[in-house]
Specification:
2 copies of one chain form a homodimer. Chain A is of the alpha/beta class and 420 residues long. Chain A folds into 3 domains: 178 residues, MoaB/Mog-like domain (Molybdenum Cofactor Biosythetic Enzyme, Chain A); 76 residues, 2-Layer Sandwich (Alpha-Beta Plaits), CATH 3.30.70; 153 residues, CinA-like (Maf protein, Alpha-Beta Complex). Helices cover 41% and strands 24% of the residues of chain A. The first copy, chain A, is built from 14 helices and 17 strands. The first copy, chain A, has a 6-stranded mixed sheet, with helices on both faces. In chain A, strands 14-13-15-16-17 form a 5-stranded mixed sheet, with helices on both faces. Chain A starts with a strand and ends with a helix. The interface between A and B is large, with 105 and 105 residues. Strand 2 of chain A pairs antiparallel with strand 2 of chain B, so a sheet runs across the interface.
């Protein structure tokens, strides 16, 4: 089955926003056994949209478009596609009533331009929008129109805002797609996330062991990012589940503790889960990561039960006042040093009464480095009931990547400690 | 001029990663007066890559590919394209020496598979990779091969990792592109970022005033996200700069304080800049945003000079101990209340001696709401030398969006206060 996604929007081609629809939609399809074959982004121009849709309808069983259904002057998708398919538009009374209700519920007057969202091409199925005003649209394009005879296609138009697109896709588009294209073959995709080793090394550690599975049809892929390498296994057919299980067993044997998560599991979820199970608590003292560790941990529901609190101790004064770092230690060793990291973690643990405390002190880009301690130098400490461990790393990245990589390392030290 | 970008990678079509190359490359082109016409993502298969490259070379003056140049088994782009163009590959001694040097400098053995990265198609220009091992490649594809006569194309292959792709593009690919395709026409794209008003309302506030400029060729676009609407103006030709200046004047008259930034300026940069200018300092007391405000502010170089520190006071105990919230206030009003927000901000300001302090206390998804204070309820306080102001908002979003929107609101209150 051939699935193509067409994202419309000048903001995409001008590089003003990230295309989060691509990842989200591709992921939804993959998790249900459909693989997107191609994704295309084109500008908000009727000609560009029509060319892309015509080409995709000539190849694909299912074409999804995103964006261009709203009320503003650059929303052209609905009209352009109706014209391409030779369909007239009519105002749908039910859709109009829903739009009026949306504004009434918010005590806001309905802008006149919004009325255009109630225009529906003849024969199209309306996909309701519970989180906005523009409905989605779905229609079957008969065989012979753009493709060879006996091969019809489905065309589904979704609105641009993610908060509207996502629930609409899951609740209304997906059931329609699953009815039109039932999946018979099993398909499993699993990503193993590793940290601490490079891409070539990961490959060398697993390649020969994985060879028999690859020969039997397992697809193996790698994706390297700062501080992590993902290993992706895809299997199809009757033995897909067994193949993935065998792959996981081998990968865990070879890569051990370097694997920190599967698929969308995150390090922070694993940590909150482990602390909750052990009924233990955590405190943070962050200097150079500036709240990034706290931010990631508090993204996890339930974090409030185990994370007692955090200190963003940017200034030396705050290091001393809030968590009791000694002025002598700061004077002797400097704020970025092993002893200060140690006192920060121990101080945060003491002040909050937490079971564990993590501290981070380092030098982020652009300034502050020296010959001894170049930009990127960081000390990470973990204090617990068995004492305090301190690690030194040099994360020579730009400022934001430095924060990200350092946060990942700090969380990883805690994850490994909690797994013991 | 027609520019197309082809991103290769199964991880894109399986929805495992965001395609950050698209935004970054499109943005680099737009800033220099080139507009990307189409972006395509295809899987790591020789057939899919060859089909997409052949189609793009049939249309475009410049085709950029990303990914598939590395050492692992799913890196197929170089071989697939050499085959498509009928070019043989040869090992390039200079490239091989650079790769060997890369590993030697890191005291790591060179994995055997890495040697494949030194293969260069005949006639290709090598684009050095200073941040990794796989070089980029550029070549002119003669007219008549995929396009009509008299229209040759350029093909540029870039590696997948952003940290390698970005400096290579700026340092080596871009000068080559600018030599091959000199820009004569002015092109200006400017995005105005607004917060606090909806998309339709923004359009109603500016539409009629902007009409004369739009009739004269200005392109106007909108992009809505939680808590913000971007207004994008694009102008071409000799009067582009004047057109954009006139548009900015009108937008500022109509939208006033709602415009918080232009282009890539962020609210946090504006705040750090204003505090630095005024030689004033800031402290934070975050409950439900869990460090997100601190994280965003500390992404800005120079934050350490004005941000004295932050408290992530998830527990009531920490609210009391660290920043002196009264136990009676907590008991009487609850942790999510106007008086607690006030005491948090005033306490953080007092403890750190900062000129300003922001506090946030609220209820993030999934649990903790009540009839009086539904999930999403949040109190934001700003304490300064003129007293303390508190705002109440109901941000009924999922947990991560709630943190993001609340952070944006808190920063916006501070931004407006600093602008007065």
């Amino acid at each position: 089955m051939i699935v193509e996604i067409i994202n419309t929007g000048n903001e995409l081609l001008l590089g003003r926003v990230l295309n989060s629809h691509q990842q989200w939609l591709c992921r939804q399809f993959a998790d249900r056994g459909y693989v997107v074959t191609r994704q295309i982004a084109v500008a908000d121009s009727a000609a560009a949209i029509q060319t892309a849709v015509r080409e995709s309808l000539g190849r694909a069983d299912l074409v999804i478009t995103t964006g261009g259904l709203g009320p503003t002057s650059d929303d052209l998708t609905r009209d352009a596609i109706a014209q391409l398919l030779g369909k007239s538009l009519r105002e749908d009374a039910t859709v109009l009533a829903q739009i009026e209700k949306f504004f009434a519920a918010r005590n806001r007057p309905m802008p006149a331009s919004t009325r255009s969202e109630a225009q529906v091409p003849e024969g199209a199925t309306v996909l309701p929008n519970y989180f906005g005003t523009a409905p989605g649209l779905a229609m079957e394009v008969p065989s012979g129109k753009f493709r060879e005879a006996n091969r019809s296609s489905w065309l589904v138009m979704l609105p641009g805002p993610p908060r509207e697109l996502r629930p609409m896709f899951l609740e209304f588009a997906l059931p329609l797609i699953q009815r039109a294209f039932p999946i018979t073959d099993a398909f499993v995709c699993r990503t193993f996330r590793t940290t601490g080793i490079g891409e070539s090394t990961v490959q060398e550690m697993i390649e020969s062991a994985m060879q028999p599975l690859v020969s039997a049809g397992l697809e193996l892929g790698y994706c390297a990012r700062p501080g992590q390498v993902d290993v992706r296994c895809v299997a199809c057919g009757a033995t897909a589940v067994e193949q993935i299980a065998a792959a996981e067993k081998l990968l865990r044997e070879r890569l051990g503790e370097s694997i920190y998560a599967r698929d969308d599991e995150s390090m922070e979820e694993e940590i909150i889960r482990a602390l909750t199970e052990r009924k233990q608590t955590l405190a943070l003292a962050e200097s150079c990561t500036g709240g990034c560790i706290a931010h990631r941990l508090t993204n996890v529901p339930g974090a409030s039960a185990v994370l007692l609190g955090g200190f963003v101790t940017y200034s030396n004064q705050m290091k001393q006042q809030a968590i009791g770092v000694q002025s002598q230690t700061l004077a002797e060793h400097g704020a970025v040093s092993e002893p200060v990291a140690r006192e920060m973690a121990e101080g945060a643990r003491r002040v909050t009464g937490a079971d564990y405390a993590i501290s981070v002190t380092g030098i982020a880009e652009p300034t502050g480095g020296s010959l001894d301690k170049p930009v990127g130098t960081v000390f990470i400490a973990l204090a617990g009931s068995n004492g305090t461990e301190v690690w030194k790393r040099v994360n020579a990245w730009d400022r934001e990547t430095f924060k990200e990589v350092t946060t990942q390392q700090a969380l990883n030290f805690l994850r490994i400690a909690l797994a013991r």
